[in-house]
Structure formats: C-alpha cells, structure tokens
Amino acid sequence: MPKTDPRVDAYIRKAKPFAQPILAHLRKVVHRAVPDVEETMKWSSPHFDYKGMFCGISAFKEHVGFGFWKGALLAEHLPGKDMSAAGQFGRIASMQDLPSDRELTRILKIAKKLNDDEVKAPLTRKPRPELKAPADLLGALAKNKKAKATFDKFPPGQRREYIAWVIEAKQAATRAKRIETAVEWMAEGKIRNWKYAK
Predict the structure, then answer these.
(1) Residue 82 predicted with pLDDT over 60
(2) Which pTM value belongs to this model?
(3) Which H, E and C letters describe 42-101, residue by residue?
(4) Whether CATH 3.90.1150.200 fits 6-116
C-alpha cells in the first residue's frame, strides 16, 4: 500500500491542466519503483522520502520539474540530460518529454540504492571567498597584541564577520568606531556576534 499524503493529491488538483497527468504519472512510477517511499510536502511541493530525502516534483506555469536529492551522483546515469533548476530531466511540458517508465524505474532504483547504502549527497554550496582585511583594521590590530592574536586564531568565517562589519560602514566616523569596538572585543577573545552565542 503506497504511503501517500492528501496534500499531494490537493497539489496535483490545483496544478495547471497540462501538469496534472505528468505529476500523477511520476507519482505512480515513483511508488511502483520504490514501494517504501513516503510522500510529504517540502518547500511547498511534493517530495518523496526513502531513508532520507529522495526525489521531488514541482509544477510551474509551463513545465513540470522532477529531480533527485542526490542528482549530482546520478549524472552518469542521465546521459544528455539538463542538470538545471527544473530537475535532472529539464523542463517537462508534456508526457512525451518523460523517459520511458522502464528508464525512469531504472534511475529510481539506482537512487534508491544510494539511500540504502547511506551515500551522502555532495555539498553544493561553495565556500565564500575570504575577505581581505582593510589596512585601517590591520593597523589597529597591530597596536593590540591580544586582539591581533585572537583575529589570527579565528577561522575564516569569524574573521569575515569582523571585516564585513568594518567595510560595510557608510561613514568614516562609523567605520572608526567599529574598528575601535572590534579591537576591544577581540582583545577580550570575543567573536563578532558574541552577544548571540550560546
């Protein structure tokens, strides 16, 4: 018995007429290929969980999106497919845009095995580049050994918070006051948002 969610039924009913059969078909194939999958709603669209995040469908104005949580790991199994925001199958505007049920089932089973084997999805977020500390901040730190030592020990994210706070100041007086406060706090070993730290 498929583990369905009435919110998914409602989502499909509210979708544009062209999208309804596509969404219903994808739903059916997912349940048939991975019987233990569970439906839910995430980010206001239907998702399927199987031992964690699995795949999802979305209806837009002129197309449907279908994609896998671990889509980057499936790229080699999707030759020639568009790995875009619409999902690994590109913009699906009609039933003809879908691969065969057999092909979809094959890909779903590969994705299922990734979750069975507890393979982690690769990180997609790129680290932000490190901000260069301005000369006036570095000069003030050079005059206070404790503050300089704290700044040098900080990981890049904590250094970035102080640097961004200083360089975002609109007026010279504000910038000077922030540098003074930053040096004072760092001399006490404090991170930029120490007031909110638990």
Answers:
(1) no
(2) 0.60
(3) ECCEEEEECCCEEEEEEECCCCEEEEECCHHHHHHHCCCCCCECCECCCCECCHHHCCCH
(4) yes
